[in-house]
Each structure stands twice: as structure tokens, then as C-alpha cells.
């Protein structure tokens, strides 16, 4: 039995952050933004300084899920740091500056406990009481020769890469406008990823939200826009579990995919093909993801073959967990 978009929208509604619950997070975020704006406006120093900020991630891309015990609401806030042409090569100094900067804005919060003194963090996290909101502060360094592009530290290993967050957001917006079901499909896959515990952690690689967004967008670009939510979800699982996962790259991105790379898959950043967003993926973890995707693909095809609503729902629940329903 097939489910149409109206039926599946009930499930999507249950897993997304509800508008009526966004206010409390917006208030805390607005307070942070106000403090940043004041600090930026009053900073007349001539050395390192924050010149602007930008909200990124799932919050800005409209693909955020409702919070659960293991997955609180988290928002990416990028701080653009200028004043030292070589700061991107000294991540310890960069993070030290950002931590001091944040402490001056929020002296009551224990900012330093989230900071890796070796500069191995992609971000410093501010956790707000009451809501549990986590704001990941990501320092970036603008490139003089590439407008809109920045150096961004990698979360591990003290490395950095070139990307454009503003163009990532533009890319996401374009796909949301082109496909009214894009965010629904992305949210469903992210929920499946979390339910099957395939998400990345500090200790293990996994299927990142950005990778899910890029794969979904790539499928729309290569095989046609799929506005049917059921078909879009099944297509994702079929693609990921296929015998040969292709190198994913985007025409509008700068640079080229390297001739050789170590990870088992390559998912190019839509702004820079040289940047593999699946760089941490291992053979074992990818095999686990492929196995779960294959199981999901087979199960949802079995669901289509079921003759009644109850049996069909049970098949979907085995993929997405007890939260799934169509009413």
C-alpha cells in the first residue's frame, strides 16, 4: 500500500521542530545575536577581530528536527575573524581568541570547558539553560582572493578546508524552491539516521546531515526532481545501497575532486569539490550504512506490496521507529 504526501506529512510534522516551540529558541538566539552585534560595533581594535556573523546549519536550511534526549536543538553560528593574514595557519591562536571573545560576551557561562587547547575543535559550544539549546560557534577566516569563501577548521586533527557557507545556504534555498518535498525527504532520512544510530560522533564517523542534504540534492539534479515523498525516500535508500556509489560533485563548485582519496565514498561540498564532507567515513561504518539502507529499501518496497494500512504502517515503523504514523 502506498502513502501519499498528505499521509506522510503527518509523520514529517511529528519529527520537525514545531513553529510554536521555536520561540523559546529564537529568544535565546536573538539575545546572543544582540550581544554579538554590540560587541562587533564597539570593537575598535586593530588586531584580530570579529567582523560579522552568520547563522548556518539545519536551522537556517529548514531541515531541523525536533529535539530528543540524544539530539538537542543545535545551531551553527559562524564568526568571521579578520586582522591577521596568517591566522588560519594557527588554529590554537584562533580558538584562543574566539574563546576569550565569547567569555567577554557571556562571562557567566563556562565556555572554556568545551574548548580543546590544541585547536582540534570545529566549534566551541554555548549551552543555554532551560531549553538545552546548543549553539556551535564556528570561527572562519575570509579568503581575500575568493569572495564568499572562508577557511574553516575541521573538527578533528587541527586541519582546515575552504568552503562557502553563504553559498551552501543559497544552494539549499534553491533546492527547497525547486522541490516542495526536499525538506520533508531530508528530515525523514535524518530521522532514520538517528533511529538507526548512524550519526557521526566525536569517536565515530557517520552519515552527517550535510551529506544527507547533498545526496538528496544530487539525486534531484541527476535523476529529476522528486516531489513524491515516498518515492524520494525510497530513491535515497536505493542510491545509497547500490553496488557502486558514485563520486558526488557539483558543477557550480570550485576546484576538482582529488585523483585519489582514502575514504570509501566521496561527497563533494557543493561549493568546493575538493572538500569531501564524508572525509571521516571508514569502510566498516559505510558498510553498516549501506546495509541499513538496503534493509530500508527492501522493507519499504514490502510495505508497498502490503494490502492494508496497518501492515504497511508496521513496515514503515521498522524503518523509522515507533514515531512513524500517518494520522
UniProtKB/TrEMBL annotation:
**CDD domains recorded:** NT_2-5OAS_ClassI-CCAase
Q: Name one GO molecular function term.
A: nucleotidyltransferase activity
Cite the Pfam families for this sequence: SMODS
Q: Which domain of life is it from?
A: Bacteria
Keyword Oxidoreductase assigned to the entry: answer is no
Q: InterPro entries, from UniProt?
A: CBASS_cN_synthase, NT_2-5OAS_ClassI-CCAase, NT_sf
Q: Name one GO biological process term.
A: defense response to virus
Keywords assigned: Antiviral defense
Name-wise, this protein is: Nucleotidyltransferase
Amino acid at each position: 500500500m502506498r502513502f501519499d504526501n498528505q499521509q506522510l506529512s503527518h509523520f514529517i510534522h511529528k519529527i520537525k521542530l514545531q513553529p510554536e516551540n521555536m520561540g523559546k529558541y529564537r529568544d535565546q538566539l536573538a539575545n546572543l545575536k544582540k550581544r554579538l552585534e554590540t560587541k562587533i560595533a564597539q570593537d575598535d581594535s586593530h588586531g584580530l577581530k570579529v567582523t560579522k556573523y552568520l547563522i548556518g546549519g539545519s536551522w537556517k536550511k529548514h531541515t531541523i528536527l525536533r529535539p530528543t534526549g540524544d539530539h538537542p536543538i543545535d545551531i551553527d553560528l559562524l564568526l568571521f575573524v579578520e586582522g591577521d593574514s596568517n591566522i588560519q595557519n594557527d588554529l590554537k591562536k584562533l580558538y584562543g581568541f574566539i574563546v576569550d571573545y565569547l567569555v567577554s560576551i557571556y562571562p557567566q557561562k563556562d565556555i572554556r570547558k568545551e574548548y580543546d587547547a590544541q585547536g582540534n575543535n570545529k566549534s566551541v559550544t554555548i549551552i543555554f539553560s532551560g531549553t538545552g539549546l546548543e549553539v556551535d560557534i564556528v570561527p572562519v577566516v575570509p579568503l581575500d582572493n575568493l569572495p564568499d569563501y572562508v577557511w574553516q577548521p575541521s573538527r578533528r586533527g587541527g586541519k582546515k578546508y575552504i568552503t562557502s557557507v553563504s553559498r551552501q545556504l543559497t544552494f539549499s534555498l534553491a533546492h527547497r524552491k525547486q522541490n516542495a518535498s526536499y525538506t520533508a525527504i531530508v528530515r525523514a532520512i535524518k530521522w532514520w539516521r538517528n533511529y538507526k544510530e548512524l550519526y557521526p560522533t566525536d569517536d565515530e564517523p557517520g552519515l552527517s546531515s550535510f551529506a544527507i542534504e547533498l545526496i538528496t540534492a544530487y539525486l534531484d539534479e541527476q535523476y529529476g526532481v522528486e516531489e513524491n515523498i515516498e518515492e524520494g525516500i525510497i530513491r535515497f535508500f536505493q542510491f545509497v545501497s547500490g553496488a557502486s556509489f558514485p563520486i558526488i560533485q557539483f558543477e557550480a563548485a570550485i576546484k576538482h575532486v582529488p585523483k585519489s582519496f582514502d575514504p570509501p565514498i566521496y561527497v563533494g561540498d557543493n561549493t568546493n569539490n575538493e572538500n569531501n564532507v564524508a572525509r571521516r567515513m571508514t569502510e566498516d561504518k559505510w558498510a553498516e550504512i549501506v546495509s541499513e539502507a538496503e534493509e530500508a529499501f527492501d522493507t519499504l518496497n514490502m510495505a508497498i506490496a502490503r494490502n492494508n494500512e496497518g501492515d504497511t504502517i508496521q513496515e514503515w515503523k521498522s524503518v523509522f521507529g515507533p514515531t512513524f504514523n500517518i494520522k
